[in-house]
Amino acid sequence: MAETFFQATNTLALLAWIALVLFPSRRFVSGMLCAVIVPGLLSLAYACVIGWKLFVNGPPPGDVMTVTGLRDVFGDDWVFAAAWTHYLVFDMVVGAWIARDSRRLEIPWLVRTVALVLTFLAGPVGFLVYVVSRGVVRGTVSVDEDSLPRMGGIGRQGIEQKSFNSLTRG
């Protein structure tokens, strides 16, 4: 049964990722399907499995703050499949943010697509590629652009900021 759960969650995530990579500018895909609906369903599945395992087995035996302790906990196929679902949820939420943010900032298609594919395959690597590329192309890594100064990158906004700074400094 744990294998079926694992396959079902992976298939659902894969189908949503295909939609996100192919149609990242569609508001329904990046703003609902991959930001709320699929992560919400996967989160519900995760919560059900973890709740069930805690109810049946109680708290994990041993120290889950060590590699050995975590390895013991993840030895249960259901817990392992649920932990993988945890990754699926957060990688998809990050991917949906990349899709929306890249559309807003007019990040080039190739950069966005590479970042999305890498986020799907190796979550943190895709996020890092996107944030660094965003800084280079648009001169900002801040999510809330009003709260932090721009980096002054090579993108259109960075050039505009440099021009503004040169005008205001006399």
Plain-language structure description:
The chain is an all-alpha fold and 170 residues long. The protein has a domain at 2-109. It is 77% helix and 0% strand. It has six helices and no strands. The protein has helices spanning 2-22, 27-57, 67-73, 77-105, 109-138, 156-168. The longest helix has 31 residues, at 27-57. The radius of gyration is 20 Å and the shape is elongated. The protein starts with a helix and ends with a helix. Mean pLDDT is 87; it is low at 162-168.
Describe the secondary-structure layout.
Elements: H1 2-22, H2 27-57, H3 67-73, H4 77-105, H5 109-138, H6 156-168
- The Cα radius of gyration reads 20 Å
Order of helices and strands: HHHHHH
Shape: elongated
Main sheet overview: none
Poorly predicted runs:
162-168
Number of strands: 0
Oligomer: single chain
> How much helix is in the residues?
over 70%
**C-alpha end-to-end distance:** 70 Å
- Strand-pairing-aware structural class: mainly alpha
By DSSP (H or I, 4+ residues per run), the number of helices equals: 6
Strand content: under 5%
Q: Average pLDDT, to the nearest integer?
A: 87
Please outline what is shown here:
The protein has 170 residues and is an all-alpha fold. The chain has helices spanning 2-22, 27-57, 67-73, 77-105, 109-138, 156-168.
Features:
single chain; 170 residues; mainly alpha; 6 helices; elongated; disordered C terminus
